[in-house]
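Worked example
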Amino acid sequence: MTEPRCTPSDAPSRPSRPEPSLTEQAAASLRRLILLNLLAPGEVLNEPDLVTRLGMSRTPVREALKLLAGEGLVTLRRNRAALVARLDPADLVPLFELEAALESACAGLAAERMTEAELARLAGLQDVLEAARDDRDTYTRLNRQAHRLIVTAARSPAIAEAHGRAFARLERARNFALAADGRVAESLAEHRAILDALRARDPERARTLMHAHVARTQALLVARLAQGPC
């Protein structure tokens, strides 16, 4: 007996991803603005203003604020407008110290384990980063990719898992420090030096440069926060 052929119309279709709800869309938009510090730490989140800015009704905006409060990005206040959560050095400095330890270890391992294809990809990211220095959104996204590529190239799943948790929690603080005068150009130079150390297969230099790179971001954050409440 001949088995029936499966025609394209008979083939099982892959389930399509559901469209994000209005609340999820509002949360995504606000999250981006907060992570990029386009809504500054401590800034009042006036619902009518957000409704106008996002082009949505108050209900999804209000629910989005609750979601972001659960992520630590928004501070809800009883009978008062919500605030963008402030940045607290007491919470952030230990996380930066952890990131410096993890990323410097990864850089050292990557100098020995990185493939030529990964090096080429990192070099390509560096070129695009240089071109995107004036585009904050693109720059932060590519910067994140470059760091994660180095972590991946270390071939250490345990370190990568720990790094993923710490790195996500520091995204807003890192972007805040990046906004300091001259930091983008300085950061690009640091990235170039790290890339050169990786190409040279020099683990010690790669470790040292990466540790200094993260430590510099931490120092700039602390200095900016010392200028006033954020």
In short: The mean pLDDT is 91. The longest strand covers residues 80-84. The first helix runs from residue 22 to 35.
